[in-house]
Amino acid sequence: MLIFIVRRLGFMVITLILASLLIFAATQILPGDVATMVLGRFATEQALDNFREEMGLNRSLIVQYGDWLLNFVQGDWGESLSTRADVRDLVMERLRNSAMLASVAFVMYVPLGIVLGVVAAIRRNSWVDHVISVGSLAFIGLPEFVTGLLLIAVFALRLDWFPSSSAIAPDAAFFERDTLERLVLPALTISLVSLAYIARMTRSSTAEVLSMDYVRTAYLKGLSRSRVIGRHVLRNALLPTVTVVAIGIGWLIGGLIVTESLFSFPGIGRLLLFGIQRRDLPLIQATTMVIVVIFTMANLLADILYGYLNPRIRFR
Amino acid sequence: MAASAETAPGREGRTVLEIEGLSVAYRTEEGDIFPVRDVSLTIAKGESFGLVGESGSGKSTLAMGAIRYLPANGRVTSGRVLLRGEDLLSLSDKEMRNVWGSRIAVVYQSPGNALNPSIRTGNQIAEVARIHLGMSKQEAHQRMLEMLEKVKMPDPESVARRYPHQLSGGMLQRCVVAQAMMTNPELLILDEPTTALDVTTQAVVLDLVAELKQEFDSAILYITHDLGVVARVCDRVGVMYAGEFMEQGGIHDLFKRPLHPYTLNLLGCVPHFSLGPRRKTLNTIPGFIPRLDELPEGCIFAPRCSLAEPECRVAQPPLVRAAEDHLTACRRWPVVPTPAEHMATITADLMQARGAAENRLLEARDVKKYYPVPTQGPFRQDKRKVKSVDGMTVWIDEGRTLGLVGESGSGKTTLARTIIGLVEPTEGTISLRGEILGPTTRSRERDVLRRIQMVFQNPDASLNPRQTVGQSIGRPLTLFGTPRHEVPRRVLELLEAVHLSPSYYHRLPSELSGGEKQRVAIARAFAAEPDLILCDEPIASLDVSVQGSLMNLLTTLQAEKGTSYLFISHDLSAVQHLSDWVCVAYLGYAMEWGDAGDVLNPPYHPYTEALLSAIPIPDPDVIQKNIRLEGSVPSAVDIPSGCRFHTRCPRFIGDICIQEEPPWREGEGDHWIYCHHTFEALVEMQKETLRLADHDHGTPGVEVQV
Known about the structure:
The structure holds 2 protein chains of 2 kinds. By secondary structure, chain A is mainly α.
């Protein structure tokens, strides 16, 4: 198991290096000149040159990349071009907020998705199954800005249960009624797509496991249905779901960008959008890198969990 | 219809399972169908009852219906099922759960799927004791270890800690049996428990079943399609056909003197291992098992029966008691011929007078195929090789058949694939009529490709599901230059050659049975007018009666067209039936090889001897010498030193086998054995085994009084 994890970690480092190269290359080929963007269209040629010199923008790309990567690893993520604030502080603060939002979403959709999927599989082809399947298909099709607006229209405007804006203070405390209240609608918005995916995935894998011989063996051992499902079915059926959940974290981040903007929530997604609009290179690079790290960590976690749950992988 | 299966005299009070007039229905979109209709049987304590039938005969449905484990669309519509006098059909679901696993235990066909892949084997077995015997964790664990010992599991402690995928097929089946025996059940149902196993492993599991029967005194319901297996482990047999019993009786009576034409025909379909003249026709049964929604009037077997007369088609004949403990559903049972008479009517010698020295058609010389060990990511390189084929030399003469035998993992299929060029050999050459062929299909000329064709094991996967039969067979014709306007006529000729009517021309594979698909595959192979057809287990996945007719077909086509075959099989009886030459392979290397008559006669290589000893012979009166191979074939990565068979050899000598490669010893005629024992020594050791060889099922003199 240890070798397995070490090997996975090795892969993760390679992935991160490749990703950093891509991010750096992408920010370099963005149209528009950084100096012009920062100093404005009417800056003198001299001012632009000075700025480029100061920021090290006229060195060779390889040197710039190496420099950036080295600094990034050491924790020096640079200074935001647009706000002059320390990028690391900015990203970390927003990351904390996004994590709050994501964890609220996470505890809502993961258990619910699994329960719905298992129920649909056990009651296959009944009306319960049909409702769950059709419902989840509908939510997979709807993008976040549509579900988000729908939720606002119903729960904020009509029922007035939750506020429509989630513009909390960037350093608001998590366990406060006001904060939590403002987290519900955006969390629900991000949840729906992933919820639907998890439900569908769980349903199909559970249905598959239910048809296996060893489930028949378990029933004919005289086990009760709850024991068969709990001990013999779930463990095998949830294997593919674990991967979906982890990959879902990636989706979650994508969803965050749209949802945070929609609800004016001060999270990392909105920060990234802000950076892109202002062509704030250090900010974009740092934010994307952080997202990539989170994404690969989630995948690593999925692999380890999968290996733990599935002895066939673990002992290879 | 009266179907009486009263307890035979002397068995009162010992009856464990009594099924009376059981019918099972499945709900389908076209209405209810009845896969099991009004069947009755009893099994006594310590008795094993063999439930035999081809696929679709309803044997598993009968068993699952009796213990109330049917799919959601199935239900028992009438009848009684008594377990020690208690009616199972009247129990509540909860009460039934207490019966499952404690009083009734079930073992299925594929041991690999019967255990949960993510729970340690020991815990799964112990679970039964915890639920039904109310044992604590430690007690259950202790009991589990005892049971594993009882099923002769080597090193139970370590096996219990392992996961199912870390155990071999034979070990898994032992675990499943141990799990079933945990509560010492009154009834043990074994549903094709050895069908998925190699013949050598099957033999070991069958021995185990026989021993358990002695030790536990449970009643056993043994479901199988294999008459040989029944003969080895059962006391009584019931033969099912399309949902009804055709015949029931004690094993010796039923095999010696079947009183139903269906049983008689089934016995004739199996090639019997014998030393008599080979290449006899095998019995075939015309027609197919009827569809459940269009069962014939009267006797359901009548449309396929050679003894049928008009009255047979009027009313359904009841099961009548023809002799003590021998029931038959045939009205005409007094005139059913004896097996000897029956064989005499169908046996025609297909072996044509052939010249002695034929031309050598194909030669595969010193063929090796090594695969790299699957790597585990870019950080680890494994320099070792999987030695699938490790230096095999075989040849095939024109118009003759080479039989290639061995357990799974012996490299049979890989060798065939190198011959046809699907796999590039690591070393060695393939030559056709003395001309050395390119290593891959790409490097071979089209005419060479035409001359070697292949028929695969799984007919479902080898026919394109979207092409009609006509298109499938026509494809090689157009490819190899038949003028377009002649193709349909040639296809019809080929269909006729494989005994399929012209109406099959426009059918899709999904509309065909397994046997019919395989006929199409054979027709397709012959369409190219090849010199050689490689048959890779072509009959293994088919029902017995279909196997017989396909073997007949292969023999007749060979006689007509002079095509050579490489016939790959793990079934020695089939190989013996079809082959002129035989090669016995183990771990990618030949152990014994030569003329079929010599190879399959003593002296044998110890491996051949073990394979022969493992064949279940469909005659309960044959006593076979028990030579069993323990364990499974070693990994082809670390091939044992010296003689590669030494780790499992029942005739192991000592260090010489471990340290030195054996010599190829040449016997009289065309016969070579790769062994440290001399021919004389082998003859001496194998004297006892000879008894098996002397036996020929079809011989007259098997007389039974009714």
